[in-house]
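A protein record in our archive is deliberately plain, so that people and models can read it alike. The tokens are whole numbers drawn from a learned vocabulary of local backbone shapes. For reference, a complete record is included directly beneath this paragraph.
>
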Amino acid sequence: GYLFLAVLLAICVLGGFYYTSKHTGGKLSILNAGSLVVPLERVTQSFQSKYPGVEVVREAHGSRECVKLILGGQKHPDIFGSADWSLIADELIPEGKADWVIIFARNEMVLAYTKHSRYADEINPENWFEIIARPDVKTGHADPDADPCGYRSYFVLQLAAEYYGRPEIVGLWNSSNMVVRHKSVDLIALLETGELDYAFEYRSVAVQHGLKYVDLPPEIDLGSLEYADFYAHAQITLKDGKVIKGEPINYGITILNDAENMRYALEWLKILLGEEGQQILEELGQPPVVPALTPNIDKIPDELKPYVAEIKINP
């Protein structure tokens, strides 16, 4: 009897050792948009419950800043999650840094504030642009050269000028009461301390941080596919000369070609793109795209194909 127990014990110990060694070691590195910090933290927690031995390192910047870091060779993430899918399609794929992009979530622009913001009890979807034009009101937006939320904030003003028939709205962009920060999530602390009254943010970020927000009309919030043609009336020229046109907000994700940990990157992405990831996004105020979409399904790794459908995208 003892011998049998001893053998059984040895099998359990060795089995346990084999199990952990299979799931230890390795590091997964993720570079992502500031607005993805909270949902991707939740996805990572779920991943680590399945692969407890894998160290996951995450870093957030504005999505354009992330692209500059990847193209400049300063950052070598396994996974890159962007608030604007076209940064992957137009900048990383042509440079050979990635082969594919998956559109996995949407968002919409809102004007975020707190109960302490000046005129918080007055502001609404009809008068918000008059409130932020008042001389005692400070409003913030992200830097368009670093963060897509920045150029999308400008698009909201451009589209609002047309939608409300009030051309002076665009002029608010250059107002001395406009405060600019590197990435949109940097504005939250300024709202909470009262240094800012209002900030252009994604709805998901406002929801995640318990902020109040003005729900902008779908014609100007960049959240609705049916207004894509109207959104295209907006455009901005960035400091590097790149011209960006208004389009519905679509988040994209990819695994970089030089990823060191392809296996774990795929496992992590399966969680994000599966039901669990969809539920996390929903809970955190960000609509998932189901099924996720890609312009070229042939390039998608086989393990991810079940989660994705092909979409024809007009250039």
Notes: Residues 4-23 have pLDDT under 50 and may be disordered.
